[in-house]
Amino acid sequence: MAKVTIVFGILLIAVGLVAFFGTGHQHPTALIPAYFGLALGIGGFLSISPSETRRKIFSHINVTVGLIGFIGAVASALHEYGHARSLGESPDAKALAAQLTMAGLLLIYVNLCVRSFIENRRSRQE
Fold first, then answer.
1. What's the start-to-end Cα distance of the chain, in Å?
2. How many Å apart are CA 60 and CA 77, to the nearest integer?
3. Number of folded domains in the chain?
4. How many other β-carbons are positioned within 10 Å of the β-carbon of residue 18?
5. pLDDT tens digits for the chain (126 residues)?
6. For residues 36 and 65, is the Cβ–Cβ distance under 8 A?
7. Domain span at residue 35?
């Protein structure tokens, strides 16, 4: 799961950088996916360990970071969309795309983590 975490970290960093440079360096909040990606990347490297306890701890920390990022991205996208519509404007398509891409990636990541946790628990019980 550590390698998967690192891959998702890299993908989130790419989303953040594309969003930041796509807005013309004007909105530093476009880097939020990159910050979550950096946290996941570091957590992924830390979870590469011969110690089972350390792997478990960092795997659970990583999935928690992923879940918080997913909830935050969905909440931000819904808020921005609702706010823009209430003003009679169309929402910022680039920001909305970055938020939904982050949410989609993190949903997939959290799903993979939960499946991995369930599979590991089942294999220990057999």
1. 21
2. 26
3. 1
4. 17
5. 889 999 999 999 999 999 999 887 888 888 999 999 999 999 999 999 888 889 899 999 999 999 999 999 999 999 999 988 888 888 888 889 999 999 999 999 999 999 999 998 888 887
6. yes
7. 2-125
